[in-house]
Automatic annotation (TrEMBL):
<feature type="domain" description="Carboxymuconolactone decarboxylase-like">
    <location>
        <begin position="22"/>
        <end position="89"/>
    </location>
</feature>
<dbReference type="Pfam" id="PF02627">
    <property type="entry name" value="CMD"/>
</dbReference>
<dbReference type="InterPro" id="IPR003779">
    <property type="entry name" value="CMD-like"/>
</dbReference>
<dbReference type="InterPro" id="IPR004675">
    <property type="entry name" value="AhpD_core"/>
</dbReference>
<protein>
    <submittedName>
        <fullName>Carboxymuconolactone decarboxylase family protein</fullName>
    </submittedName>
</protein>
<dbReference type="GO" id="GO:0051920">
    <property type="term" value="F:peroxiredoxin activity"/>
</dbReference>
<dbReference type="InterPro" id="IPR029032">
    <property type="entry name" value="AhpD-like"/>
</dbReference>
Amino acid sequence: MKKEKQRPYLFTEAVSEELNVAFKNLASEIMKDSALSSKEKSLIALACAVAIKCEYCVKAHKENALTAGATMDEIKEAAAVASQVRLGSGLTFASFVLD
């Protein structure tokens, strides 16, 4: 079974090959091991995807995190942290009705 092309790359490829290559190179550079491991970066990306409520992104970043060596416990914990941040930001925003 052929793996489906990741959605962002469908768009960048449709715009131009140059944009597609530039986006892939940027993603590779950001996600490589450096001060943070690629596993840690994958968990951060997953948490961000949860926080912005992007279903496709959650699925893609979960797969990337698993590939980078993350466990399901680490994935669930990253998602829980993101959920807490999202809840906190909602409560903070709601507090403006008190002004």
